């Protein structure tokens, strides 16, 4: 069993093209499969520019195999009470070894350490059909102690993203008291 203990990516890594290419490539590869059918062709989950910004802001944590990034998560404090994570991805070649679990636990520890005892996440979910990846996530987060607390249409929260969707979707919000 490997040690995938996550760490925050140093903000200076925002200037490392190899790190940014790997991060954006990993997220886009993983989400292309996990969100297949939700987006029009050509809509990528992220860009090199976005991961550079998030890295510079100290919001990206990674799990590595040696120096190779095999998982990542974005940790964002949206307000003073709830922290939020997103852009969670594990390399498909290394699934089921605890990378996802370690990244979520890392995000939760950081939230607690910064005095935010509530963690939040959103699952983009098709409104009128079930997506196997989203069903898996809903079950997994529930097993991790998250409760479904709300649902809102994408067009309400992220109007710029709505036209890129191939099917109507909601953002289902989950929260956990840490
Ligand atoms: C969610 C994700 C990060 C989990 O990564 P991971 O490294 O496999 O996670 P873990 O090894 O900690 O396993 C997490 C759970 O998945 C289950 N699992 C992992 N691989 C599996 C597989 N091939 N088949 C069935 N279940 C599997 C594990 O049993 C575990 O469940 P448990 O905690 O109840 O035992 C990964 O599946 C992923 O990148 N998914 C696509 C992106 C995504 O949907 N992100 C979340 C957006 S909110």
Automatic annotation (TrEMBL):
SUPFAM superfamilies the record matches: Acyl-CoA N-acyltransferases (Nat)
UniProt xrefs under InterPro entries: Acyl_CoA_acyltransferase, Bact_Acetyltransf, GNAT_dom
Keywords from the UniProt entry: Acyltransferase, Transferase
Pfam name, any one: Acetyltransf_1
UniProt organism field: Nonomuraea africana
CDD domains, per database record: NAT_SF (cd04301)
Name under which the protein is recorded: GNAT superfamily N-acetyltransferase
Keyword DNA repair belongs to the record: no
tRNA-binding among keywords: no
Domain of life of the source: Bacteria
Domain N-acetyltransferase: 10-170
């Amino acid at each position: 069993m490997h040690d995938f203990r996550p760490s925050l990516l140093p903000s200076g890594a925002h200037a490392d093209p190899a790190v940014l290419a790997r991060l954006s490539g990993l997220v886009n590869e993983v989400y292309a499969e996990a969100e297949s059918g939700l987006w029009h062709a050509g809509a990528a989950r992220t860009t090199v520019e976005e991961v550079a910004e998030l890295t510079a802001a100290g919001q990206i944590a990674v799990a590595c195999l040696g120096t190779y990034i095999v998982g990542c998560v974005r940790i964002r404090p949206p307000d003073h009470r709830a922290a939020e994570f997103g852009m969670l991805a594990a390399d498909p070649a290394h699934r089921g070894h605890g990378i996802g679990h370690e990244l979520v636990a890392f995000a939760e520890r950081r939230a607690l350490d910064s005095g935010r005892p509530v963690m939040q996440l959103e699952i983009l979910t098709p409104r009128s059909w079930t997506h196997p990846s989203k069903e898996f996530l809903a079950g997994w987060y529930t097993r991790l102690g998250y409760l479904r607390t709300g649902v809102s249409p994408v067009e309400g929260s992220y109007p710029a993203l709505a036209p890129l969707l191939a099917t109507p979707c909601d953002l289902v919000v989950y929260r956990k008291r840490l």
